Amino acid sequence: MGAVEKAAQAIAQFPMVALLGNPNCGKTALFNRLTGARQKVANYAGVTIERKEGQFTSSAGNQYRLLDLPGAYSLSAHTPDEMITRDVVAGLREGERSPDVVVCVVDATNLRLNLRLALEIKRLGLPMVLCLNMVDVARKRGIVVDAARLSQELGMPVVETVAVKSGGEKALVDALDGMWPFYESVANPLSAIDAVSVEETQREVRRILSVAVKDGDDRGNRSEKIDHFVLHPVMGPIILAVLMFCVFQAVFSWAKAPMDMISGGVADLGVLLSNHMSEGILRSLLVDGVFSGVGAVLVFLPQILILFFFILVLEDCGYLPRAAFLLDRLMGGVGLSGRAFIPLLSSFACAIPGIMAARTIQNPRDRIVTIMIAPLMTCSARLPVYALVIAAFIPDREVWGTFNLQGLVLFCLYFAGIISAMAVAWVMKRSMRAKRNQPLMLELPAYHWPHLRNLAIGLYERAKIFLMRVGTTILTLMVLLWALSSFPGAPEGAIHPPIYYSVAGMLGRALEFIFAPIGFNWQICIALVPGMAAREVAVGALGTVYALSQTGDELANSLVPVIHASWGLPTALALLAWYVFAPQCLSTLTVVRRETNSMKYPLMMAGYMFVLAYTATFITYRVALALGG
Amino acid sequence: MTLAPTLIKLDSLPVGQSGTVIHIAPGNPEDTEDGADLARRLMELGFVPGERIRMLKRGLPGGEPLAIKVGNATFALRRFEAALISIQPE
Q: Which of A161, A348, A514, B11 is in Cβ range 3.0-4.6 Å of B83 for a Cys bridge?
């Protein structure tokens, strides 16, 4: 038996602790506090709900497995998330070990809502600990919880924790140590939960609160004061617009320095290699294939991190649900819920996290529509294409004194994406004959300061996912593309550059037949092939195509003057229009398949986006030609 | 039945006013996509008879959605959801 298997077997024997609680009770912060970076994030078998497991060791040396269950308001399971939570806790889910102990995390400032879930879980008859989280906030608000009395009333240990402070988890770990050793326990049947009505449970909650909790003065609390402005019918949308503007400003201006550093570093490495290697296939592969290709993609890491930094901060402090509240009416106009805002906002960085975030939308139709339009949000992978074409063709001058023409064009491209997304959503909802009334039922949690530690863990996860993509899918594609555009070589006495005769050249020339009516030359067609696999690759591909088709000194020139010289303005505008829709990156389609569990939706997505892209590009090209552009 | 005439639906409670939940009407399953049991769901969020609630904010335009405080939690509801909840205003 290998060391790895031995370790895995040892871990499997640790007692399994399940963390359970209402959404927004600080459960995930507690999970992060206990396990740190020792987390394993995967999906529950057969569904797309995130399964987070970790391990920790108490100071007494006891080792535990910790499972962070999806947040639930009730175990009667109205959402897929709640169903998982219920089934895992009750030991009914195949392939999941039933927990040895259930830790019910409650928000000490909101026991009226949270305790009901604790009472429901208690009916399952499993060993249980109640974890009074956020006791520091509760104390500040003058809420006094008599933990001993609460423990007596509930018939289970009650511990106080502050998940966001170092050492704030100690009481919980001590309580778990005190329960050692654990014996196998079997949950009562689920019918035990529904045996008591919600009203009756709530009466019990009220009784317990009356004896164990002294409520503080809630009027004029901080969250309400903030909401007075943030949810204000006039100021609210203004604040939202200003915030979004600042986020985008930051994404594009802060990221500039690190992006320049990355692209500069990669270019220097390429030059270094060129100088120290003799000319040949290997040098060509490394410099033209790997470095220029992967470098062109790696450059987005700073932007993605900055965007996610803001999304995570806004999410952590409780603003995102408010944004959903403010936009609910607007989104409702095209048949979406305000909840779609969060997935769509994430899609501006990359459609993949956006599509995954659509899990929080309970209504299946809303969720599908949100997923289908997510790729129409301008993801940062399209930016290099936009940036390249804009730099080459749109003059850098002022319009109406204040606006920069290049910036204005970029804004229009973003806007075109949003407008078409709304139109597609409207059409889809119409064709699905959706009924008018969709429940919203969105919690607006209390505001709090974002926690650096949670933020760091979240950003680390994002960076890891992105770098793994660059390291695997994209690197493979770049090498493949390099091979396609290098072989077979040019024949003797060739009049065209070598790539013209390669496989990619043949493919591109074949595609030119389809794309010539919308103004694309064979170089663009070649770049589109890998560009469909991953959008950001298109620039790298253009680089490869043009770098390889130039000779000597020209090879060193950047792409901008090259394409400026070889494309007309109508072609440039056509390419921009194409990329507003840009069918389609393979990674996105793969995720859509995984998230919807069917081939139908990814195929539909690729199809509708291709048709939209072709039509829009055709119109753009023809109009630009007719205007003599 | 002296109380009955003073009951109103939650969606018509003015901003800043408080009340007590009296009754939750079962939603019409025809109204919603998946025939969700809206009444039960609302109760699980804390809209249980006897609980105090307060209307915090209304969205624009059309006074929708509504931000409603129940217990120490705040939930956003759409009008038709709030209309299922009968309250006794204070």
A: B11
| Dist. CA A189–CA A168, nearest whole Å | 34
Asked if residue A346 lies in contact with residue A255, where contact means CB atoms within 8 angstroms, the answer is no
**Domain count within chain B:** 1
Which tokens sit at A269?
């490495």
Interchain proximity B32–A435, CB inside 8 Å? yes
The type of residue at A393 is F
The predicted-structure confidence for A430-470, as pLDDT tens digits, reads as follows 887 655 567 778 889 888 888 888 888 888 877 877 777 66
Q: What is the pLDDT of residues A236-251, one digit of tens each?
A: 889 988 888 888 777 7
Instruction: Look up residue A290 and give its DSSP letter.
Output: I
Does any CB of chain A come closer than 8 Å to the CB of residue B63?
Answer: no
Give the Cα-Cα-Cα angle A116, A117, A121 (nearest 5 degrees). 120
Tell if the CB–CB gap between A231 and B67 is shorter than 8 Å: yes
Compute the nearest-CA separation of A560 from chain B (Å): 46
Nearest chain B residue (CA) to A225: B56
How would you list the strands of the sheet with A158-161, edge to edge? A39-43, A50-57, A63-68, A16-21, A101-107, A128-133, A158-161
Tell me which CATH homologous superfamily contains domain A3-214. Answer: P-loop containing nucleotide triphosphate hydrolases (3.40.50.300)
With CA atoms as reference, report the closest residue to A151 among A125, A169, A132, A136. Answer: A132
Helix, strand, coil share (%) of chain A residues, nearest 5: 65, 10, 30
Of the candidates A609, A629, A608, the one whose C-alpha atom is nearest the C-alpha of residue A620 is A629
Q: What is the CATH number of the domain that holds B55?
A: 2.30.30.90
pLDDT of residue A47: 66
Query: Using the beta-carbon criterion (under 8 Å), do B40 and A198 form an inter-chain contact?
Result: yes
Inter-chain CB proximity A231 and B57 less than 8 Å: yes
Q: Where in chain A is the domain with CATH 3.40.50.300?
A: 3-214
Residue B42 has, within 13 A of its CA and on its CB side, a CA count of: 29
Q: Which residue of A lies nearest to B64 if distances are taken between CA atoms?
A: A329
- Give mean pLDDT in consecutive 10-residue pieces for chain A, a chain of 629 residues: 68 87 87 82 69 88 91 82 87 84 92 91 91 89 89 92 86 89 81 84 90 75 85 89 82 79 82 80 77 71 81 86 86 80 80 78 82 88 79 76 77 89 88 69 86 84 74 75 76 69 80 86 78 67 64 49 80 89 74 82 90 92 82
Which residues in A lie closer than 8 A to residue B54 (C-beta atoms)? Answer: none
* Residues of chain A contacting residue B56, judged by C-beta atoms under 8 Å apart: 224, 227, 231
**Which of A320, A321, A419 has the alpha carbon at shortest distance from B65?**
A321
Range(s) of the domain holding residue B60:
4-89
pLDDT of amino acid A301:
79
CA dihedral A194, A197, A199, A205 (to 10 degrees): -50
> How large is the ipTM?
0.89
> What pLDDT shows up at residue A312?
84
Asked if A438's CB is within 8 angstroms of B71's CB, the reply is no
CB crowding A172-184: b at 16 or more within 10 Å, else e:
bbebbeebeebee
With residue A373 as reference, give the H or E element that holds it. helix A364-373
Strands B52-58 and B66-70: antiparallel
Asked if A204 and A129 count as a contact pair (C-beta separation under 8 A), the reply is: no
Q: Which residues of A touch B31 (CB under 8 A)?
A: 435-437
**Partners of residue A443 in chain B, C-beta under 8 Å:** 45, 73-76
Q: How far is A113 from chain B (nearest CA, A)?
A: 6
Distance from CA of B8 to the nearest CA of A (A): 20
| Cα distance between residue A139 and residue A108, in whole Å | 9
Q: What is the pLDDT along chain B (90 residues), one digit of tens a residue?
A: 455 568 899 988 998 899 999 988 887 666 555 555 788 888 888 898 988 899 998 877 777 889 999 988 899 998 888 989 999 988
